[in-house]
Amino acid sequence: MSESWTDPASLEGDALTQWYQRSPADIEQERQAAAARRYQDFFYGGTVYQPHPRRQARSCRPEGAVGAERGLGVRAETGAPG
User: Fold this and answer.
1) What phi, psi does 81 have (nearest 5°)?
2) Alpha helices (runs of H) in 1-82, residue ranges in sequence order
């Protein structure tokens, strides 16, 4: 279940009354917000997308390689693939 889901059994008094007297529009808005959170969690691993540190753009090519800034990997000295 979503962390923002409210268990009506945990509510008492006015809070319970307000929960079960919500309008259909309010219920639909909450449903759509929960669906959007599930989508974000599934595709981006949470509500705020932060790339994995190992997946950040950086070159794996040795320094001095021709085209290293573009990731081509051709050694300057030999012209051989890096």
Assistant:
1) -60, 145
2) 13-20, 24-44
pLDDT in tens, 18-69: 999 999 999 999 999 999 999 999 998 865 556 666 665 555 555 655 655 5
CA 19, CA 9: separation in Å to the nearest integer? 11
Query: Full-prediction pTM beyond 0.90?
Result: no
- Please state, in angstroms and rounded to a whole number, the distance separating the CA atoms of residues 82 and 78: 10
Q: What is the structure's pLDDT at 69?
A: 55
* Number of Cα atoms under 13 Å in the Cβ half of residue 54: 0
